[in-house]
């Protein structure tokens, strides 16, 4: 490699460094593929009316609009998702719907999603069709930024859950159940904490409201899974009690409307108010007995008139009897629950019979039916319970609580029959998930969770996979969660595959976040089978703007054995510092990356600067680099050459002569620079003769003459002549003598004189 190029103005050339990642072939990723080009994707704004034009496609079947070519910058910002739009189909189908993503033209953190496909053939002409398009404006930054604290907290729980599987407590069934419940509680507490933060947010815009609803749904699903699948310990009491508590916490009774409040306020007698009794039924159904007792006590009327004394006493007696029934309801945890429950049901029947017997005295059919209805609900009458329930969830859990208080989770499927005869289930994802959890179809429930939130799906599936799957998931293989064909995998393999796929899908958006990218990679590290592949794919695309972040990226590479990626990233960091001329940092990173050629180029640059100016400009650079015998040879040479000049300056001529011989013998520097080293020998040999000090041996002199012959080789003649011409500009001013020439004659002459001096010393 020549120290000088033919063009003096371009001694060194470097490729400009950029953080822009190379083009990605999305076809290698699952769920992402190429997409037909259309003018509608390249309009000026995603929000403008012209974004969706009716004439984006011409009327001919399969023909695309012409006359528009998107610019390169716009094309780079577009990523198309499955499924593609098929132009040659004449019928409507799910496979003919497409989903696309386009980044907003003015706000880099926003993007636009759109769904489109053919309209039914009955609505269009035979030879043409129009697009049915729906556009959704979304934000990439808001969703993740608003959850940053939540993601950090839940990742700590996720990590503790991963460590728990290798602990001693996990081997014992009872301890494992306790650990699972504790982990689940930690997740729920994190969700509740985030809900409180959202509720305290003064900005009640659409995004906050949507987030609030999402997290409430997540809490309801997670808590129900905890009750149905994780709870085995006695400290969590019975299923019916937990379910009614879950209903009241996740789906509490709504507040009375303004009309209902006015009706209650204006009513002269609450006993005859429909709103009052409707509210009381709800309290009884939901097991909110303290509030129900307060309601009943509010209609106790003290007897003041002889005219109604018998009637009021009877009503008060019935109210007190109902209150007594409510208070005496047996505790589910009692050891003699069966006997106590039978006795209590008999008591409710007696009060009901007493009410019917005194109906003549009551002279109030509405009041009589209301008391009987309450007693029937307490006794677990299905018709009474379902008639006063307003939803299938309320009806199911009220039926479990009042009629089947000691049922097990496996018994609930048999109870669901009459529920769905009377009630319909909303088609939203949350309702479908809850329905399938009660049906013990957790695989189908998880399939619907992906429509609610990726965090919920990934973390819930991870926790379920840590449990005995044959017992908890009922032998389900979770195939619906796996997108591609998995016929060759066993059940356990497919479950692990589903878990990793969900974790990867959740982690991918975090990798591009400015603060959560480390957590994203940590999630990938917990995917034993596929995580390393994705880490290797994304680690090189993380932009690093400071050394601290760079070191964190390198640590991820080291922890996962990504040697090649570590070298590439280190090289990129070195190139970045090369652009801003921080040569010390550049050389350190190039040494870590093993880039010997790059280091050689930088070292030659410093040698070139010395030839041009005669000054050592790399002294501070070399001092900042830890150099040892295992360091790069070019860096070692530069370090030794710098040491030579320091020794000369301090007048340690013996040591300087030894270092100079080492530099020449190493033959590391460019061949033409050997002449510079030979020029350095001249003042040392003169000093030795003048002071009669033996600085060189005869063998050294012979080597000097040999290197003179090699430097004058015709192959490097041009570059050698240029080097000498540059040195002549400063050599006399710096060194005080003119004895440098293209033919190295001063060196040869001094070698002859020094030989005679050595011969004289021997005598």
Automatic annotation (TrEMBL):
Annotated keywords: Membrane, mRNA transport, Nuclear pore complex, Nucleus, Protein transport, Translocation, Transport
Pfam family of the protein (one): Nucleopor_Nup85
One Gene Ontology CC term in the entry: nuclear pore outer ring
Gene Ontology biological-process entries: mRNA export from nucleus; positive regulation of DNA-templated transcription; protein import into nucleus
Primary location recorded for the protein, binned into one broad class: nucleus
Entry superkingdom: Eukaryota
Localization: Nucleus, Nuclear pore complex
TM regions (residue ranges): none
Any one GO molecular function term: structural constituent of nuclear pore
Similarity field: Belongs to the nucleoporin Nup85 family.
Subunit note: Component of the nuclear pore complex (NPC).
PANTHER family (UniProt xref): FROUNT PROTEIN-RELATED (PTHR13373), NUCLEAR PORE COMPLEX PROTEIN NUP85 (PTHR13373:SF21)
Free-text function comment from the UniProt entry: Functions as a component of the nuclear pore complex (NPC).
Name this polypeptide is given: Nuclear pore complex protein Nup85
Species of the source: Funneliformis caledonium
């Amino acid at each position: 490699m020549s120290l000088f190029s033919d063009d003096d103005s371009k001694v060194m050339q470097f490729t400009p460094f950029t953080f822009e990642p190379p083009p990605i072939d999305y076809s290698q990723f699952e769920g992402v593929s190429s997409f037909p080009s259309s003018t509608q994707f390249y309009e000026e704004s995603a929000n403008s009316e012209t974004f969706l034009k009716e004439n984006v496609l011409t009327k001919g079947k399969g023909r695309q609009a012409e006359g528009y070519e998107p610019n390169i910058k716009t094309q780079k910002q577009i990523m198309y998702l499955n499924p593609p739009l098929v132009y040659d189909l004449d019928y409507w189908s799910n496979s003919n719907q497409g989903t696309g993503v386009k980044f907003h033209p003015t706000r880099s953190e926003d993007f636009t999603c759109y769904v489109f496909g053919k309209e039914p053939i009955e609505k269009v002409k035979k030879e043409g069709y129009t697009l049915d398009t729906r556009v959704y404006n979304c934000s990439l930054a808001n969703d993740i930024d608003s959850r940053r604290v939540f993601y950090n907290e839940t990742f700590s729980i996720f990590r503790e859950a991963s460590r728990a599987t290798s602990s001693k407590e996990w081997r014992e069934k009872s301890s494992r159940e306790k650990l699972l419940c504790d982990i689940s509680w930690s997740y729920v507490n994190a969700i509740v904490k985030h809900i409180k933060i959202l509720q305290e947010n003064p900005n009640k815009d659409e995004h906050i409201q949507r987030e609030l609803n999402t997290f409430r749904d997540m809490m309801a699903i997670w808590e129900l899974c905890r009750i149905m699948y994780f709870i085995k310990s006695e400290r969590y009491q019975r299923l019916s009690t937990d379910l009614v508590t879950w209903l009241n916490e996740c789906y509490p009774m709504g507040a009375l409307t303004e009309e209902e409040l006015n009706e209650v306020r204006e009513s002269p007698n609450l006993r005859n108010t429909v709103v009052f009794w409707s509210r009381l039924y709800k309290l009884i159904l939901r097991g909110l007995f303290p509030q129900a007792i307060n309601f009943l006590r509010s209609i106790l009327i003290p007897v003041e008139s002889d005219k109604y004394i018998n009637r009021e006493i009877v009503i008060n007696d019935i109210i007190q009897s109902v209150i007594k029934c409510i208070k005496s309801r047996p505790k589910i945890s009692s050891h003699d629950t069966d006997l106590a429950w039978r006795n209590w049901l008999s008591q409710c029947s007696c009060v009901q019979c007493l009410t019917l017997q005194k109906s003549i005295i009551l002279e109030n059919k509405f009041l009589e039916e209301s008391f009987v209805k309450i007693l029937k609900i307490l006794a677990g009458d299905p018709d009474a319970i379902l008639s006063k329930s307003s939803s299938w969830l309320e009806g199911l859990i009220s039926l479990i609580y009042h009629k089947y208080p000691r049922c097990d989770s496996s018994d609930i499927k048999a109870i669901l029959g009459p529920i769905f005869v009377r009630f319909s289930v909303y088609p939203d994802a949350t309702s479908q998930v809850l329905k399938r959890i009660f049906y013990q179809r957790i695989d189908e429930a998880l399939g619907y969770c992906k429509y609610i939130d990726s965090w919920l799906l990934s973390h819930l599936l991870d926790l379920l996979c840590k449990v005995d799957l044959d017992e908890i998931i009922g032998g389900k293989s979770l195939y619906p969660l796996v997108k591609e064909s998995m016929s060759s995998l066993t059940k356990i393999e497919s479950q692990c595959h589903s878990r990793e796929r969900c974790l990867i899908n959740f982690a991918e958006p975090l990798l591009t976040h400015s603060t959560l990218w480390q957590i994203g990679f940590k999630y990938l590290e917990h995917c034993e089978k596929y995580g390393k592949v994705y880490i290797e794919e994304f680690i090189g695309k993380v932009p690093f703007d400071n050394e601290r972040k760079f070191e964190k990226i390198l640590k991820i590479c080291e922890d996962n054995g990504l040697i090649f990626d570590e070298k590439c990233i280190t090289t990129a960091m070195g190139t970045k510092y090369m652009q801003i001329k921080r040569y010390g940092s550049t050389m350190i990173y190039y040494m870590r990356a093993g880039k010997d050629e790059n280091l050689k180029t930088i070292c030659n640059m410093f040698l070139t600067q010395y030839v041009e100016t005669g000054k050592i400009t790399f002294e501070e650079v070399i001092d900042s680099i830890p150099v040892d015998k295992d360091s790069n040879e070019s860096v070692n040479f530069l370090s030794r050459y710098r040491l030579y000049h320091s020794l000369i300056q301090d007048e340690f001529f013996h040591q300087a002569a030894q270092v100079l011989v080492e530099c020449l013998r190493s033959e590391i520097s460019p061949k033409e620079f050997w002449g510079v080293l030979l020029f350095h020998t001249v003042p040392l040999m003169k000093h030795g003769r003048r002071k009669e000090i033996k600085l060189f041996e005869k063998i050294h002199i012979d080597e000097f003459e040999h290197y003179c012959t090699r430097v004058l080789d015709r192959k490097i003649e041009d570059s050698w002549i240029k080097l000498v011409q540059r040195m002549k500009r400063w050599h006399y001013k710096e060194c005080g003598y003119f004895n440098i020439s293209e033919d190295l004659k001063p060196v040869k002459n001094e070698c002859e004189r020094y030989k005679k001096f050595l011969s004289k010393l021997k005598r």
